[in-house]
Amino acid sequence: MKIISVLDYGCGNIRSVIRMLEKAGASANRVSTPEEVREAQALVLPGVGAFDHGMGALMERGLDRALNDAVNNHAVPVLGICLGMQLMCRGSEEGRLPGLGWFDAQATRFPDPGLTRLPVPHMGWNTLRITKQNALLSADESDQRFYFVHSYRIQCNDPGDVVATCEYGDDFVAAFSKANLFGAQFHPEKSHRFGLAMMRRFVEWVHAAA
User: Fold this and answer.
1) Catalytic residue of the set 89, 94, 150, 187
2) Selection from 165, 163, 181 nearest residue 173 by Cα
3) Which GO terms describe its cellular component (predicted)?
4) What is the DSSP letter of 94?
C-alpha cells in the first residue's frame, strides 16, 4: 500500500487531514522536509491563511523546489486543499509572491459585501455542481455538500481544468484537476460523509497511479 504524505509547512490542520485519510483506508504520514517530499509516493498540500504566508513558508524551507520536482519530474499525485489549492495557481490578488504555477489560474477576492450583501469570507456548507468527469468527485451523486472557509476564489484561464463549481453570488471554481493534480477549495476533512467519500476516491486514485 502506498503511503499518502501530508505536508506540514505551518499552515494547516495536519492531524484532521491525516485522521480523515486513515478513516478512508489510507496509510498516511506527516512530512515537513524537502527530502521527505522527494521520497513521497503521494502528497496532500493542505492550508489555511494568507497566500504570501503560505507560499513564503514553502520557499523558506525549500519545499517549493521539492514539490515541483515531485510533480513535474515524478508525476506524484497531489491533492491541494483550500489555501493549498490556491498555491497551485500562478498567484493571488492577496499577495505578491508567485504561486507554484501548476495551473494557469489566479486567486481573486470575492466582491465587496456592500455590492452583493454576502459576507466575506464565504464560510459554511455549500453544494457543488460537477462540471466534468473526474477521479475524486462523483458526477452521479446529487446534492454533494462540502464545508468552505475562504475569502479568495479561483479563476481558471483554461476551463478544461475545472471539474466542479459552486455558487456564492455567482459561480466560482470549487475544484480543478489535470494529470496527477487535484485541487479542492473546500475542506474534505471537515465535510463528513461527502468528504469521506472524496478521500476514499483519492486513496483509490493514488493506488491506481503508475
Assistant:
1) 187
2) 165
3) cytoplasm
4) T
